Amino acid sequence: MGRESWSVAILNLETILSHYILIPHSYFHAFKEHRNASLKRLVEVLVHLKLNLKKATFAIQYLYKPKMIGIMSAMREEIQALLNHLEHTEQYTKGKRDYYKGILFGKEAVLVFSRWGKVASATTATQLINDFDVDELIFTGVAGAIRPDLNIGDTVIGKQLVQHDMDASPLYDIFEIPLLHKTFFETHQDKRKQLTNACQLFIKNYTDVISKNEARNLQITDPKVVIGDITSGDQFISKQSQVSFITTHLESVVCAEMEGAAVAQVCYEYEVPFSIMRVISDKANSDAHVDFPLFVEQIASKYAYGIFKNYFQ
Ligand code: ADE
């Protein structure tokens, strides 16, 4: 382990010990002196501090626990290609959802599709966080374009998430989540950047996985990556009146879907880093009910596979 990693490791250890097992802060000076120590030396330090075996083991195990990444979508089709590449898969069924835990591109991951809507996705996210102890949660799926320059096949990386069907006015401002004092939930800055880079890399070479025929059939030409706000609600958006409502009240929104903001709220409440990637499957208009299923069936999962492959490397 290099000097850098040891510093990070010891700092993490300090945080863990102080938060979880209430070790006096003065003990940490002893750790600091051993930043460049070997694991053997670190164990000696723990013994010297008279941590009992249980606490010391807990601290070391927690410190070296591999990161667990949670990946969610609303529909099986949106993550099927990732499921196909998951290795050493263990399946758990809870609350009528199937959670697939395994190794994805060399990293520990747990994958689940929630089914549609805010309730389904919020309960699934809660289970994912509590039962699988995920260190970050990434949502992947499709969305309807709200901003007129977005086309089918473009990718949106969520900056902030909002629920366009939340309205407890006049008690609270429209869209504000009662008692939480929040309307917008921001995604994790570093994860967002990482996901953006992964998308940009994928989009550059999207023809490697999307055939010319598929691109033509689905009207995908020259796709782009956009970072923007996403709105969620328990409505499929296909009418001009729905789009006008969103654009009038939520000017920063670029696309609409049915889960992201609910998951963002759960992650906010549990303090789990959250990021989201949505591919535009339709233009939230009268063709949406035709474009959406075609895109989901033929393309969505290929995007997810290509983007996550880059993200994990
Ligand atoms: N997901 C994909 N397209 C959508 C739309 N038009 N409305 C809501 N969610 C969507």
Quick gist of this model?
This protein is α/β, with parallel strands linked by helices. The chain has two domains: 3-64; 69-312, Nucleoside phosphorylase domain (Rossmann fold, 3-Layer(aba) Sandwich), CATH 3.40.50.1580. The chain has eleven helices and ten strands.
Order of helices and strands: HHHHEHEEEHEEEHHEHEHEH
Number of helices: 11
CATH uppermost class of the largest domain = Alpha Beta
The number of strands is: 10
Tell me the major beta sheet. Answer: 5 strands, mixed, barrel
Radius of gyration: 22 Å
Which stretches are low in confidence, meaning pLDDT under 50 for 5 or more residues running?
22-26, 31-36
Describe the model.
This protein is of the alpha/beta class and 313 residues long. The chain has eleven helices and ten strands. α1 (3-20) packs across α4 (53-64) and α5 (76-85) packs parallel to α11 (288-312). The radius of gyration is 22 Å and the shape is globular. The model is unreliable at 22-26 and 31-36 (pLDDT under 50). The site of adenine has 14 residues, from β5, β9, β10 and α11.
Characteristic key phrases:
single chain; 313 residues; alpha/beta; Rossmann fold; 10 strands; binds adenine
Q: SSE layout and pairings?
A:
Layout: H1 3-20, H2 28-32, H3 39-48, H4 53-64, E1 69-73, H5 76-85, E2 87-94, E3 97-104, E4 107-113, H6 118-132, E5 136-145, E6 155-163, E7 185-186, H7 189-204, H8 212-217, E8 225-232, H9 240-249, E9 253-257, H10 260-270, E10 274-282, H11 288-312
Helix pairs in contact: 1-4, 5-11, 6-10, 7-11
Bound molecules: adenine.
